[in-house]
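Re-run with default settings, no changes from the original entry. Doing this only to confirm the output is reproducible before filing.
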Amino acid sequence: MRRLISALLIPAACLSLYAETTGRISGKVQSKDGKPLAGAKIILKRLDRAWLKELTADAKGNFLQVGLDPKDYELTIKAEGYVDYKESIRIPLADVLVKNVTLLTPAEARTAPQASGTQTVPEDPGAALDAEGRDAFNAAIPLYNEGKYEEALPFVEKSYKTLTDAQTKLKDEQAKAELAPELLKIERVLGICMAQAGAKKEEAEPYLLKALERNPKDERVVAALIETSKAKADKAAEQKYTTMLETLQGPNPDVIYNKGVEAFNAGKTKEAKAHLLKALEVDAKYAEAHYLLAMVEFGENNLKGTKQHLEKYIELAPNGKNAATAREMLKDPSLKRIK
């Protein structure tokens, strides 16, 4: 019996001795959004001699290797679509080294701060252009959002040109694929800026038409197409896009009023009156439309209409830019007698 007990104790003693002279590594591989990267390859390479071990992450992204000599290793972790992770490590004696690693896509790696391990994006002639183009677009966006199209335009032009060059030179296929939809967004913004503030507004039309094809309900693009139509003196196209914009957002009293102003300045009072009355149908409190209608009525010697619109203007805009003129006109005896 004593001999049997001794024999049974030997394997346990051997295992204990083995554990005390080796170490282990375990960890988890995941993406930036916390998704486990099942199937990721974990490669352990001894630095002191030719020895290499390859592991595969399980369905939860976990991996484990026991029985490692307490030496220095190069740890490499790979997964398709992600940048390789590399780090020099040392396996502890009779202990476990835990390495939880987040892999980044090429685009994420370009902007990520360096951690203890490195995820180096392979040298790519298009990468610098990609970064430069994105920086230019980021500089344009605040100006564009504020409607400062003239100031935004040089940045957007630079961004579009630089990123177009980057797309042809990028070697990283995933980075190239990620850039394609960004270029379409920039192309849209470029068209809008050119139409609103460019020296040759009509040159924006090809960009805008492609953007409109992608999104027929893009109000900002339709408004820009109205500007390109005006630049080309294409009345039919201007009317087409104006109607389209009104369908999308409802009649715009500003647009209708401006047509009234154009007609009034051209001496077409009948046409001006029709536009101004339509503007008031959309917005009965449009003070400037009332004032200009008063001028139209005065020109047609309709004193009652003149007085009504002047009084309405003062009621709506007592401190408006034309309030003083309106009050002075209402002092005229010919208007004062009107009931």
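DSSP finds 14 helices and seven strands in the chain. The longest helix spans residues 173-197.
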